[in-house]
Here is the input.
Amino acid sequence: MKLIIDEELRKKYPELRMTIITAKLSYNNSTNEIDNIITKKFNNFINKNSDLDKLLNSNSIIEWRETYKSFGINPKKKKPSAEALLTRVIKNNYIPHINPAVDAYLVSETIHCLPIGGYDLEKINGNIYLGISKGEEPFIAIKNDDVELTKTGEVVYRDDERILTRCWNYKDCMHSQINKDTRQIALFVEAPTKNITNEMIIETAKDIEQNLKEFCQANTQMMFIDENLNEIEIKL
Here is the structure.
């Protein structure tokens, strides 16, 4: 299986770089133990970051808003995932307890203010592509049975059969969601322009790896796509 960046997308975002984390998961810790660790990590972040406006004016949040605008999406109506999560965490003291693998990257998404998405690799058909939608492509989101249609020009992840994520990182599909039975995953951290540095996405990926090892006793690998690379083998 490969991750392939479509040529049209590469031309529009020539500075695009990505880190990819793959993991084989097991769950040897008790759910209560993991939930306590997650709660502590989030509370530490909340205690140190009560100023939501300051967080939402960070470089990475602003850059993703501009990226959404660049492919025709209003980020006030459809917030990039890191901004939406930060707002819930700080405003509502929201601490996600979804499952250990998802919580592992949501902690990092919050702390590093960068969108992160991923898939259960056993549910992927063929390769994973990051590209631009031709429009009117069907999509079923997590926790929603209604069929949506993509808009022409929006950035999407897809495999050989379906759209996996709409608006780059706004909404994931039901089919490939990571759940408590998932054992093989791939997670993605992107830098669409140089305003988000290699160091930022690599540091975020390392943090995710550490969480996956702590929460899920995971064996992980990290891969990096630079400006000159359009495809990479997804290895476990």
In short: The first strand starts at residue 2 and ends at 5. The chain has a mean pLDDT of 96. The two ends are 10 Å apart (CA to CA). The chain has one domain: 2-233.
